[in-house]
Every structure is written in C-alpha cells, then in structure tokens.
Amino acid sequence: MVLISRMGTLLAATSVILLVRAAFIPQHLVLSNRRGGFSSISLAASEQFDLDGLSFRQANQDDIDTLSAIESASYPADEAASRESLKYRQQNAAPYFRCAVQDENVIGYICSTRCAEFEHESMTTHDPTGSLLAIHSVVVKEEYRRQGIASDMMKKYADEMSTEIGIQKMVLIAKSNLLGFYVNCGFKVTRPSDIVHGEDSWYDLEMDLQQDAIRSFLNPDESWFVKTEQFCKPFPVVKPHLEAHRIWVKDMRAKGCCITSGYRVDAEGKPGGGGMMLFAAKSYAQAEALVLQDPLVANQCVEWRLNGWIPEVGNVQMR
Fold first, then answer.
1. I need a surface site. Which of 61, 101, 146, 267 has the fewest CB within 10 A?
2. pLDDT for 98-127, tens place per residue?
3. Residue 24 pLDDT grade (very low, low, confident, very high; cuts 50, 70, 90)
4. Phi, psi of 45 (to 5 degrees)
C-alpha cells in the first residue's frame, strides 16, 4: 500500500485534515493521482514487515535531510514540501511530527500543524493552542509500502494525539478508494467534502478523540514533589526507556495523576541539564513509590533525587 497525503499544505486540530494522494493498490503498482490522472509504476513485492520492530518517535533536526528525501521521492515536484517547510514543522510543531523507525532508520512519517480555524490563510503557520490538527503528509518509504505500516502509523498517531491537550477531534479528507482504510483506522465518513481539488470527489471523515480530563490542581490532601535526574548510561541504552517514560507519564495523566515531565536546557535551549518531573502525591512515601515505577528509574538509566516542593508565592497549574 502507498499512502501519501497532500493538499498543498493542509493544517488543522479539534480536527486532523488529511488529503491522500494514493491508496490501496496491488503489490505490483504504485498509483499517483496528479491532475486527475493515474500513472502506474512496477515494483517488486517486499518481504513481510515485522510491525513489532517498528517504533514511533518525534522527528528531530538530524532527520530533516532523510525526511526531505522521502518527501521528494513520494510526491510530484509541484506538490512535495520543501526542505524549509519540513524544517519549520519540525522546529515549530515537533510534537505532531512523528517518524516510523526500524533499526534507527526512518522509514515513514506523519507531520501536522495546529490551527484555530481551518482556512486557507491558516495553512502555512502553526498555532500551538489551536484546537484543530491538520496532517500535511502521511508517507511510507517506497521499499516498505503495502505491508500495513501506514495503518500502524495512523493508529499510533491517533493514540498519541488523544493525549494532547486541546485536540478534540481528527478530521480527514479522502477519496472513495481510501474510505475503507480510514474506517478500519477508526474514522467515520460524514459527507462529501466541500473542498474541490482536481477532478475527483473527496469525502470528509472524522474521529473523536476521547480524552480524560487532565487534573490541573492539587487535591486538598496532596503536596507537590519534584524529581530531578541525570542520565548515567549511554544514550543508545537510555533511548528506549526514555520513550517508555513518556508513555508512562501520559498514562499516569490519563489516570488522573497530576504530573508533568520534561528536560532542562542551557541558555541556548540545548538539552544536557538532565530531566525534571513535577507531580502531586499525598506523602513522600507515596511520591517515592511513584518515582520507582518510572521506566527510567526502574531500568537504572538515571541518577535521581526526590524533593517535596512548597510554593511560597503563587502556585502551579497543570496543562
């Protein structure tokens, strides 16, 4: 399967707006819709891909050249995003730029930006507080296509976006031959789309993102606690546990824990100062028990310290 999205540059977030350029196809064909026509390219069938070996992570600056090469190879020249556009999205909308990785090699990606309203004028910028999420590209590298990777990417992407504050719904625009794919991913078809693009008809689809309310304040019987840490193992060893840590924090938030986690940076915004986690607990013992569940701590990837924190002026509200 080849799955590629584009409408010049689509933005959006209470919605994800997705324009798909290619679809379900036989093993020997790649179809590319350009100005209403289809062209076929013969390709050899690939070996079955092991989805269990596929990881999904945030794109970083070092990925830009690889992402740009995949983009250029996947879209016609007049539709492919420029390297500068991809760099902008990575720098300004990094949480919504996710890469599919096998053996540390990027083999696909989904990138999006947020906006308050889905309009032409909002399609070239990113509003970090926007309630709509628009997907610009859903791309799988050519030699890995037609093996279920796009489905896996989309489902993981939807799961991750459901934990993002302020994104309430994903909406996409697709042609009729992709409706079955998106319905299988959890979308529902709502109506023919008002958007005109080329000679073919498009359909609006949407998926509600069911979000548990994120608790913002302490309960009366709780106090604030701060865990600070430094890596004590090489980053390649730490890396999988760092991703597990992020998932664990999101899961704790979804369960009602008042918690946030991030990393410290220097004057130039570069990481290296270690990590910090701020959270609520009823006692030091309860706070310590929670810290010991952290995958980074449980796998002895960090040297850490736990302190209680008492606000003297003002207080903290989680988002």
1. 267
2. 999 998 899 999 988 887 776 666 667 888
3. very low
4. -70, 140
pLDDT band at 167 (very low <50, low <70, confident <90, very high): confident
CB contact at 8 A, 143 and 46: yes
Measure the CA–CA gap between 40 and 27, rounded to whole angstroms: 11
Rounded CA separation 17/314 (Å): 39
**Bridge partner residues of 278 (DSSP):** 226, 260
CA dihedral 306, 310, 313, 314 (to 10 degrees): 80
Query: What pTM does this model have?
Result: 0.55
CA distances from 287 to 225, 254, 257, 283, 305 (A): 7, 18, 11, 6, 12
| Nearest CA among 290, 141, 164 for reference residue 222 | 290
Nearest Cα to 98, choosing from 57, 135, 69, 153? Answer: 57
312 contact partners, CB below 8 Å, separation of at least 6: none
Do residues 40 and 34 touch, judged by C-beta distance below 8 A?
no
- Closest C-alpha to 241, from 302, 290, 287: 302
